[in-house]
Design a protein that fits this description.
The protein is α+β, with helices and mostly antiparallel strands. It is built from seven helices and ten strands. Helix 3 packs across helix 4.
Length: about 300
Amino acid sequence: MTLYLLTRVPPALGFEPAGVDLRLAPWWLSGWLLILAALAGLGLAVFWLQWRLRWLMRRNLKLEEEGRATAEALARAGQALEAASLVDAVTGLHNRKFLEPNLANDAQQAQRAFKDMLAAGRDPLAAREDLLLFLLDLDYFKHINETWGRAAGDAVLAQLAQRLKTITRKTDFRVRWDEGTFLLVARRARRSGAVQVARKLMEDVRDLTFQLPEGATLRERLSIGFSAFPPHPCHPDLGTWQQALGLAEQCLAAAKGSGRDRWVGALLEPGADPAPLRGQDRWNLPWAVARGLIRVDCSEPGLVWPS
């Protein structure tokens, strides 16, 4: 906008009146508007920064939750993998890898319980603190594989494992020990009942009809060797669970060598002198029996010790 201002200038000044051109700034360049614009821009910048911070916080929280979920999933997967590594694929029972740490822990508890009862003047054999170790071997299992094939042998093992789960307590350990051999650890039991357990195991397997994949059926028999831990009821610190298991292995060998389809059990005499057995890594069962240190029972006459 052009504004002409006419001014009366006295002639004495020596020039004629002239027009003066005064230009005003546009309204959008006004100082107050620029200030408002700057404040608005600052407000928008602050708002954007706050929004960005909140977004980053939400994103970090989400990432942390996803990280925790991933870590938990990996932990569960690791636990599942570890559990799977402790289970026999054919039978679904535990394997030897499972046995050592768990049986070692139970053996320590049994020894401590026996010591406490002896210190209190109580009879430890009257309580349920024994660990009974039963080695069960299918008679002529190799013949099943050779005659019917590996699949038939696996089917027999799986059915026997299922039977063991049915007739034993949930708290007991059932372990696939070898090709056709299982280990049953009866926890918190009495050694006085070991014979009854062995007899029941044999009778149940005798009554079991095994179904083969081809449709055929089989009847099988067991040989069993057993012992107890702690080996000496009056000296709980004598021997390890490995030595007790060694006695069961020797009993199983004697049962198979004496005609199979029978049980053989070895238990230390409560009044036996523990001194001759100390310092030995593996107890020789016939040697200990000959010296009256260990009593051996068998379900059938004619016990033969393997050479």
